[in-house]
Amino acid sequence: MTRRLTLAAMAALALSTAAPALATADTVKLRISTPAVESDWHAKMLTVFKDELESAAPGEFDVEIHLNATLFKQGTEPAAMQRGNLDMAMISAQDIAKQIPAWSVFTAGYLIRDPEHQKKVFRGDIGAEFYGMVEDEMGIHILDVGYLGTRQLNLRTDDEIQTPEDLAGVKLRMPGSDAWLFLGTALGASPVAIAFGEVYTALQTGVIDGQDNPLPTNKAAKFYEVTNQIVLTSHLVDGIFLSMSGKTWDGLSDSQKEAVTAAAEKATAYNDENRIADEAELVSFFESEGLKVYEPDREAFRERVQKMYLESEFAADWPEGIVDRVNAVE
């Protein structure tokens, strides 16, 4: 009897120690890569995503957040997800347009009007259509769009910029894709492709004359320390798309997909609310840091940028009537 009790106790102990191992084996690991710095809102929103997912589905997910492009370089995340080497990332319309030219419409300056317009476009029929392209052609599932901010020019030079002609010869950093570089040219500058993590040093040493980013990113990356002025061109209402590898997405149960989608929406809402509030307050911050902040002749920029896009090879790839459809979203 004693021997039987001993064996039973040993069996129970073995089962109890095996249970956590089984749970761990069933846990879905989600590795997220982003070039965002820790203090930026679209880095913080990933923590919101992680916490919301843990709350909704305790123990079902193991979310790893890799900031500062420590896991994959900026712009390489889509390919990494397609290869199955990365589960999640925040990707741009410019990244997507490299593989799906129709997406270049969302890289065009002066199209999306504001954050509310952006949300309505991508959560409506247009978003469903374009998200479907990404799923079908790239094998990537887009969870939601987050407001990345309205992009402004940030220059280390002192010359006042009022029209695109004033940017002639200005070396403006842009991310390294044709869509980004074209936007720099459309603005009137001489675009230079440099990775985000190298921008601060490039500004400091004069390798470039300026960069364009939303004001919160400018503050988070401390670009204001090595620049002299901010020109409020408001040339692009930018978005970032919280996305998942199609392989990872397809491996989730229906309830897990619901939890992931809900967590993504909570995360983007957190990002949007804080980023919009930041933008409203940052002009006075930059002025207190000694930067000159002003509006140029935006209509002159809008006219040049729109004309160049409509005459470009990019427009040839846009679905017929898409600009009118986006403009019609209220």
From TrEMBL:
It comes from the Bacteria. Its main location: other. Residues 1-23 form the signal peptide. InterPro entries: DctP_fam, TRAP_DctP, TRAP_DctP_sf. Pfam families: DctP. It is found in: Cell envelope. Keywords: Signal, Transport. Belongs to the bacterial solute-binding protein 7 family. This is Sialic acid TRAP transporter substrate-binding protein SiaP. It comes from Chelativorans salis.
